[in-house]
TrEMBL record:
Signal peptide bounds: 1-22
Spans traversing the lipid bilayer: 187-209
Gene3D superfamilies hit by this protein: von Willebrand factor, type A domain (3.40.50.410)
Name listed for the protein in its UniProt record: VWFA domain-containing protein
UniProt keywords, alphabetically: Membrane, Signal, Transmembrane, Transmembrane helix
Entries under SUPFAM superfamilies matching the protein: vWA-like
Domain of life of the native organism: Bacteria
Taxonomic path: Bacteria, Pseudomonadati, Pseudomonadota, Alphaproteobacteria, Rhodobacterales
Organism: Ruegeria halocynthiae
A Pfam family per the record: DUF1194
Length: 245
């Protein structure tokens, strides 16, 4: 009996020392994937982050977060291709307005690590899916929020990892920045976004990035509040234009 008790004690201590074994229930797990490829200027990169921070400090997102029984788990990753696709913040669990403000402060402090010359959207979706599958949270809904200004030009076709993500119940929403490709919104709707309730927002100027990032997060989280049982078979993304208004 003493030997059995000792073994159980060791198992319990081992589990406690490895928090990755624990799963904290949340309403939504969200990866915010920020484009940092060479076509994105430092100013445009900063505007994407400022839009996220604005959303987290805004009343609509804070209302959404505080209305969730178990809160929001969120991280930010930068992407261009391959090994450059990496999180720039750890996972945060947001349940209160103070949590949301604190996360916004961290977002504003993110420094660009540099970007590659390629735009590998498929690899970015794969990396974001890995982040969702390897954390300490168990989300009722899982989402990837990806922004970018160009089509996939390296690595796997985005349709392949997109379908893998959809099959795992993940929704991918997009922000298409049309500064160099006027049809990028349609491309994002066809090849990038998908899953339950997915959508793409498209903007025609870099000056609209900050506002669009804020509005996209508001729309994303408010949609979830009003659609607790979205159709899991909806895969066609809806597209809208979002300018400063």
């Amino acid at each position: 009996m003493q030997r059995l008790a000792l073994m159980l004690t060791v198992l319990v201590l081992s589990w406690a020392a490895n928090p990755s074994r624990a799963q904290v229930s949340v309403d939504i797990e969200l990866v915010i994937a920020i484009d940092t490829s060479v076509s994105v200027s430092d100013q445009e990169f900063a505007l994407q982050l400022l839009g996220v921070a604005d959303a987290m400090r805004g009343p609509l997102v804070q209302e959404a977060i505080t209305s969730m029984p178990d809160g929001l788990a969120v991280t930010v990753m930068e992407w261009s291709y391959g090994h450059l696709n990496r999180p720039v913040l750890p996972w945060f669990h947001l349940r209160t307005a103070n949590d949301s403000f604190a996360f916004a402060n961290h977002v504003e402090q993110v420094q660009r690590n540099g970007g590659g010359r390629a735009t590998a959207i498929g690899e970015a979706i794969t990396r974001a899916t890995e982040l969702l599958n390897n954390n300490n949270f168990a989300g009722l809904f899982r989402k990837i929020d990806i922004s970018g200004d160009a089509r996939n030009n390296s690595g796997v076709n985005p349709l392949v990892p997109r379908q893998i993500a959809i099959d795992q119940g993940i929704t991918i929403n997009g922000l298409a920045i049309l500064t160099s490709d006027r049809e990028l919104g349609t491309y994002y709707s066809t090849f990038v976004a998908g899953g339950a309730g997915s959508f793409v927002m498209a903007i025609s100027s870099s000056g609209s990035i900050r506002n669009a990032m804020r509005r996209k997060l508001e729309r994303e989280l408010q949609f979830q509040l009003s659609h607790t049982n979205p159709d899991p078979f909806v895969q066609k993304a809806r597209m809208s234009f979002d300018e400063d208004q």
